Amino acid sequence: MSTPTPTSATTATSAAPTSNAGAAGGLLTRGQLTALLIVALAVAWWLLPEFTVVVMSYIGLYSIVAIGLVMLTGVGGMTSFGQAAFVGMGAYATAWVCTSPGAVSTLSGLVGMGGLPWVGLVLGLVLTFAVAWALGSVTLKLSGHYLPLCTIAWSLSLYYLFGNMEFLGGQTGITGIPPLTIAGYSLADPRLLGVVIWAVLLASLWLMHNLLDSREGRAIRALKGGRVMAESMGVDTARYRIKLFVLAALLAAISGWLYAHMQRFVNPTPFNLNIGIEYLFMAVVGGAGHLWGAVLGATVITLLKQKLQDVLPGLLGTSGNFEVVVFGLLMILVLQRFAEGMWPTLQRLSSRLLRPGKVAEPRNVATLEQRALPAAGTVILEARDVTKRFGGLVANNQVSMSVKAGEVHALIGPNGAGKSTFFNMISGVDDPTEGEVRLMGQVMGKNPSRAFAALGLGRTFQHVRLLGQRSVVENVALGAHQRAHKGWLASMLRLDRGEEAALLAEARRQIERCGLGEFADMPAASLALGQQRIVEIARALAGQPAVLLLDEPAAGLRHLEKRALAELLKQLRAEGLGILVVEHDMEFVMNLADRITVLEFGTVIATGTPSEIQTNQRVLDAYLGGADDLAAGITK
C-alpha cells in the first residue's frame, strides 16, 4: 500500500501465557491498562495533526493484515508472502462495485449510492473466501520451504492479474472511489475514517484474542510443530489449517476495503510481492506469537521508514531508496536483539508494574460428552496379521494381538523390534501394508488418528509432544477436544465460556489425579521430562478414552514416581480401561501387566502372562543381556 511514507506491515500476537509474578503490587491489570490507552488515543485523536492521523490510519490498516499473519504464521506455523494479494482483492472488489457503470446502475437502485461500498465489502469477502479456500486446499498440502514458495507464486499471479484486466483499469487503476457513509454521514474526512479503521482493528484484536483463548485456539496452536499430536487428540489439522488461512485472508481483504475508501484510488502497485514481504516482516519484528505485537510491529516499521526517508537524503546529499538498505540493516540488528520480536520484551518489562486480573467465572458450566466404557473382558482393540513394509524392509510381520477392557497388556521387545511402528499403526498415525486394525469392533482401514480418538483411543508418545510454552492445564485440555463442539464464531464472540470452563475443570481434575496439581499453571516445558510424560497421560485421560496406549510412560521417572504411576494404571484398569503399554523397564512391566506380547525383528515370538514370559527361553535369548531382568522372578 502507498502511504505518506512506504511502510511495512508485519506484527505479532499475544499468544503465550504470561506470568504476573512480582506484579501483585501493580496498580492496574493488563485489561485496565489497555482500556486506559484506548481512551487516551480516542481523546488525543481529535487533537493530532492531520498528517499524523493519516499515518496512524495506515498503521491501523497494516496492523489488521499483520494480525492475520500472526494467526497464520506465528501461531499456526504457516508462512505466507501473499497477503498483499488478498488486500488487493478487497480493494479492487469495492472499487469495481462503486465505479463500474453497469454495477452502479444495477445496484444503486437497490441499496442507494451510499450502500455501494458495503456491497463491495460483501463481494470482496466472498471472492476472498472462495479464492483463499481454493488456494489453501492446494497450497497447504505442501510443507517446508515449498509452502512459502507457493505463496510467492500465486501472489505474483494475482498481482499481474490486477494489472492486466481491462475492467479493473489495468496498470492505471481505478479512480473516483466514493467515501464510506454510515447512517447517512460521510467519512470523507480522514480523521473520521481513521476512527473506523482503529475500531475495526480493536474489534479484530478482541475477536482473535477470544479465539485463541478457547478450545479452538488450543487446536490452532497445536498446528505449529504438533500436527501428529493434534490429530491424535481428535483435531482435523488439514481443515483447521485451511480455515486459518482463510481467516487471515479475510482480515487482509477488510484492510484492503478500508484502504480503497481512504485513498479513493487503487492500482496494482500497493499489492505486489514486496509489500507482502513487508507485512510478514512486520509480524516477525513485533513478535509473531503475539496479537498486540502486530500493532507494535506496524507502528515501529512505519515510523522508522518515514524517518529514514526524511533524514537520509539530507545526510547523503542525494535522493534514492537508501532507506531500504539502512532499514534492512536496522531490522537485522533488531531481530538479533529481540529474537522473538519486540512485544515479548515489552511484555516482560510491563509485567513488573501490573497486577494479575481476575478471571470471571462463567454463569453456566456445560456438561461434557461422557463415554460408557465396555464391559470388562470385551476386546476393544485388535490387530490381525498386521504387516508394515518400508520398501524391502519388513518392520512388522503379521503381528496379531488384542487389548481387552479392564486389563493391562504390555508390548515389549529389544530396541529395533518394531514396537513404535506397530504402535503408530494401531493408533492411526500410520497405515498397515497388510492386515487390519479393529477398534471397538470397527475395522479402521486407513482412517486418520482423529477417527481412532473419536472411538475412544487415547495415547502418549515415545518422544514427548507438548505445547511447551503453554500451561500444563491448557495442554491437558487439548486432550478433551472432541468432548466439546463450539466452533470458531462462538469462540470469537465468547459464547463458549460454559463449555470452556468445563474443559478446563476436567483438565485440572485429570492433572490432580496424576499428581501434578501444583504444576497446573506452569508452562509445560518447565517440567522435568518424567513429569512431562505424566502430563501426556493426563491429556490422554481428559479425552475419556476406552483404551489407553502408553509409549514408554515410565522413562525418566524416579522410583517413587514409577510406583505412583503403577498405582494410577491399576486404578484405571479397575475402572474398566484397556491399557497397552510399551515399556523397557521390566520390573515395572512384570509387576503391572496382565498379559505380555514380545516382539523381535517385527515378529511376535511370545504372548502370555508375566510368569510365562519370564520362563520363555526364546524371550530370554532375544533379550541377551536383559535375560537376568526377565528371569528375576518378579512377582505381582
Describe this structure in words.
There is one protein chain. With 636 residues, the chain is α/β, with parallel strands linked by helices. Helices cover 53% and strands 11% of the residues. It contains 25 helices and 14 strands. The chain has helices at 30-45, 50-75, 83-99, 101-111, 116-139, 146-164, 190-212, 215-221, 227-232, 237-263, 273-286, 292-316, 322-337, 342-351, 419-426, 449-454, 472-478, 488-492, 497-513, 529-542, 559-575, 586-590, 610-614, 617-623, 627-630; strands at 174-175, 181-182, 185-186, 265-266, 379-390, 393-404, 408-412, 434-439, 442-443, 457-459, 547-551, 578-582, 595-600, 603-608. The strands form four sheets. A six-stranded mixed sheet has the order 10-11-12-7-13-14, sandwiched between helices. Helix 3 (83-99) runs parallel beside helix 6, helix 5 runs antiparallel to helix 10 (237-263) and helix 19 packs across helix 20. The longest helix has 27 residues, at 237-263. The radius of gyration is 29 Å and the shape is elongated.
Task: Determine the N-to-C terminus distance.
Answer: 72 Å
* Average residue pLDDT: 87
Question: How many alpha or pi helices?
Answer: 25
Shape: elongated
The whole-angstrom Rg is 29 Å
Number of strands: 14
Can you list the strand order of the major beta sheet? 10-11-12-7-13-14
- The parts where pLDDT drops under 50 for at least 5 residues are 2-24
The amount of helix comes to: 40-55%
Give the class from helix and strand content and strand pairing.
alpha/beta
Q: Hey, roughly how much beta strand do the residues contain?
A: 5-15%
Biggest β-sheet description? 6 strands, mixed
